[in-house]
């Protein structure tokens, strides 16, 4: 896909684009009198991206562009495997960092809000690993997955880092007055203004969240830290970073902060009532499909638990981090409850399709899937196929690359679009379901039908890779059958 720049903003819009391919370039008003120059720029942008426009039309402040679809489909599909490996390689080391779960230093590491912080932290952790960043979590030998398990089962967990390094720095810092073994006065060089409050000093005590946070930061050998916290913790966290800056001569500049909004349940409830609601819905759905077998054995119990967690992850990640996540406690009233299982169902649907195809190949019904370069992609002609290529195959590699850049290079994590992956997976699953219901993929074994079938199988193979990779970024295991 094309990359946005300061002059042109790319967006998909099939309602306003007459006879065009969903692309609108909304231009700066200051450039309205330079339409000829802008049109030439558009042609150059597309050609440099390896795409061939067939028409560019100016209309009321924006351009609509019609692509040569045959050429564009071949471009996006054949380019996808290369970008998939090159941009998503975990082997390239681009730095090191650690994730600091601020709530562990306070008394509110429990409930729905804590679960949402953990889910975003896990997603961020996976993106950093994908970006080549060696990333650890500041909670000892416990992983984020372990913490999610403990949270769901209401198992308390605390983490305290050694305090020796902090005590040494406090005793030698010119801005710190030692009161006793358990308290210190920190004098700020300049008056601080934090959330409307003016501060000249802060009394630091041993039994406080700020003290425990400073211990965690000073015990890490990594200088870049990603702090996951709730908005209510922001005030003290800003104070903590100022003190950390005084003690380390400027290392606070390498701190990234991600505020994760609260979870609002309607009607009011607890994390336990929320998880039980998801469990009840998924168990009922499984019973409708598989009958009494659902009540037998550990397999179904574990499978429903995995589906319930996947459902919660999609619900908690589908809104931007800072927004409040409003969830329905009653599964019959929740519109987003089915999203996670719907995505997993479509992923398993493709796994079943390819399993059946491979069996038919072994039985001699179909020839083996040819190499991509030997497939006639011009046979992908339907609007549904164009939508899958244009909206997903052409978009996903760039989306993850831009997400990686936003979490590793942006000044603040607030600008990172950490909800985009689950939104794309949901949208892709809807469009895939529509396409699958309209199109018969494994047809009769006739020679003249094979080229179209092979082109469609390759398209769905790439769609399957997007689904599996996207699910891995939110630590959800794709199922081979559902």
Major sheet description: 4 strands, antiparallel
Spans of at least 5 consecutive residues with low confidence: 3-11, 13-19, 83-91
| Principal-axis shape | globular
Overall structural class, as computed from helix and strand content, comes to alpha/beta
Assembly form of the protein: single chain
The share of residues in extended strands comes to: 15-25%
Computed Rg: 26 Å
Q: What is the N-to-C order of secondary-structure elements (H for helix, E for strand)?
A: EEHEEHEHEHHEEEHEHEEHHEHHHHH
Q: Tell me the strand order in the biggest sheet.
A: 1-2-4-3
Quickly count the helices: 14
Please indicate the count of domains.
3
Helix content: 40-55%
Q: Care to count the β-strands?
A: 13
**How confident is the prediction overall: mean pLDDT?**
85
First CA to last CA: what distance?
Answer: 33 Å
3D structure, described in words:
- Strands 1-2-4-3 form a 4-stranded antiparallel beta sheet. It has a 4-stranded parallel beta sheet with strand order 6-5-10-11, covered by helices on one side. It has a 3-stranded antiparallel beta sheet with strand order 7-8-9.
- Helix 8 (271-290) packs across helix 9.
- It has 482 residues and is of the alpha/beta class.
- Residues 3-11, 13-19 and 83-91 have low confidence and may be disordered.
- A hairpin with a 2-residue loop joins strand 3 and strand 4 (62-67).
- The protein folds into 3 domains: 8-67, no CATH class; 95-259; 317-473, Isoleucyl-tRNA Synthetase, Domain 1 (Orthogonal Bundle).
- Helix content is 48%, strand content 16%.
- It is built from 14 helices and 13 strands.
- The chain has helices at 35-48, 69-87, 111-130, 144-152, 164-172, 209-219, 234-248, 271-290, 297-317, 339-362, 383-393, 396-408, 420-438, 450-473; strands at residues 8-12, 23-27, 53-59, 62-67, 95-101, 133-137, 176-180, 183-194, 197-205, 225-229, 255-259, 263-266, 325-328.
